[in-house]
Design brief:
about 475 residues, 18-stranded mixed sheet, ten-stranded parallel sheet, 4 helices, 30 strands
């Protein structure tokens, strides 16, 4: 159901006054436009048009058999008071097909300068692809909504040139929505050119499913930038992670966090988490060796509970710790000596001067020495503390690190292109995990000579006028 709400002229004038008089410490909830079309309850098949602005109030569903189409350039705001959240249920579809010149934006309904992480619930997409947990219900949604099934080619629609800002709410510990949450989403779904910014939990989280993705940005997220769970089997290429040094979660914030399930057990159904990531650039919170950051930042890559995620042709710099194998079951899935290796870590560059390698307790052969041997056999580790020299050697622009800038002072048009240095070459796609489904490029990390974030990505959403 949807209905129109008119905001009185006096409220609008108060909102304009609030833009200049409030701060992030004392936000006042005011719409950014004098009128907005309210979205609530269960939506019928419909199209959202760029000539209007929309307000998501409470939990809004696109149910089985319904399709929500969104025109390029459309702005959809999430209501803070009602924890506005858009949920695409199993069998529903979202066709959000923006353009580089006219991206589709999901953002906070608060005024310019007052927007903050956790202002609304975010975008949740559920499908009928395989999940390795029987009848799971998606986190953060009440009453429970079940996702997953047996159709790995399931189609939940299209996300292309889409931004999601200030979304994700922790309702209770370990029960939260993310900026973009994907539960059992199938490979028939298209997901390209998506940016999440200043989210209140993870940037992107995949709970099982087989959806693929390219050109994905997690910018200033609170918890993990990219989180993969419950037997995710898709392929992801050209991923960018940029961290803001002050924002990190008490649970420990990582660039990539990956589990097979919640208890380190053999999955009841489906598979291990065997997704594949290629061409990932992770720019952690530390721009220099002496910079202070939130103590809750953890690892560039944290692999846990029987995961067998493969990562290749990537670069990670700026996290206080490098890579961690949390359990013996993780080591067993990567160690060639076991004869059962199903996950691969290949052609990556890890810059970690403090603690490059880390392991959890309780393993027999899962040791720091064993992880070091495994990693260095096919990857490069840099432990020198001269960050400026490291950026130059890699061919990265040092200005892409947030450093000590405040959250509104990141470059408005950062240059991520790589044309020289170590990362300009060295990618390989010969391993079977990487031989299909990926663009074959020569560079490592998310960027070669072309900066694909140009024109459509936004790096100061706090001050953006919509």
């Amino acid at each position: 159901m949807k209905k129109s709400i008119s905001v009185l002229a006096s409220a609008f004038l108060f909102g304009m006054f609030a833009v200049s008089c409030t701060s992030n410490d004392d936000p006042i909830e005011v719409p950014v436009a004098p009128t907005a079309t309210e979205l609530s309850g269960n939506l019928e098949t419909q199209t959202l048009v760029a000539s209007k602005k929309y307000l998501i109030k409470g939990q809004v569903f696109v149910r089985d058999g319904k399709t929500l189409t969104i025109e390029p350039g459309t702005v959809i705001m999430g209501d803070k008071a009602t924890k506005g959240t858009l949920i695409i249920d199993r069998g529903g579809r979202i066709n959000a097909n923006g353009t580089a010149a006219r991206p589709i934006v999901f953002t906070s309904a608060l005024a310019v300068g007052t927007r903050d992480r956790g202002d609304w619930g975010g975008l949740v997409i559920l499908g009928r692809a395989v999940v390795n947990v029987p009848d799971p219900s998606i986190e953060g949604i009440t009453p429970a909504v079940v996702y997953g099934g047996t159709a790995d080619s399931d189609n939940s629609g299209t996300l292309n040139f889409v931004r999601v800002e200030f979304a994700g709410i922790e309702l209770t510990p370990n029960n939260e929505t993310n900026s973009i949450t994907l539960g059992g989403v199938g490979s028939g779904t298209i997901m390209t050119n998506c940016q999440v910014s200043f989210g209140g939990d993870d940037g992107f989280e995949w709970f099982g499913g087989s959806v693929n993705g390219k050109n994905l940005i997690s910018y200033g997220s609170w918890d993990d930038s990219f989180d993969l769970d419950f037997g995710y089997t898709g392929k992801l290429q050209f991923l960018l992670d940029v961290r803001y040094g002050s924002y990190a979660d008490q649970s420990g914030s990582n660039g990539i966090e990956c589990d097979t399930n919640a208890n380190d057990a053999v999955p009841a159904q489906g598979t291990l988490t065997t997704g594949v990531i290629s061409n990932y650039t992770s720019v952690g919170p530390r721009a220099t060796a002496t910079q202070g950051i939130n103590a809750n930042f953890q690892h560039a890559v944290d692999l846990r509970r029987r995961t067998a995620l493969s990562i290749g042709n990537s670069v990670m710099i700026g996290y206080p710790r490098g890579i961690r194998f949390n359990q013996q079951s993780v080591y067993d899935n990567y160690a060639p000596s076991t004869g059962t290796a199903v996950g691969f870590l290949l052609n990556n560059v890890l810059v970690a001067d403090l603690l490059p390698y880390n392991v959890g307790s309780g393993g027999t052969t899962n040791t720091v020495a064993a992880l070091t041997t495994l990693w260095t056999a096919s990857n490069t580790t840099i432990t020198t503390i001269d960050f400026a020299a490291n950026y130059t050697a890699l061919g990265l622009n040092a200005a892409i690190a947030f450093g000590t800038n405040i959250n509104t002072a990141y470059p408005t048009n950062p240059n991520f292109a790589v044309t020289t240095g170590t990362l300009a070459t060295g990618a390989a796609f010969t391993n079977a995990k990487f031989s299909t489904g990926f663009d074959v490029v020569t560079f490592r990390g998310a960027f070669g000579a072309t900066d694909w974030t140009d024109t459509w990505a936004e790096f100061n959403p706090i001050g953006k006028v919509y």
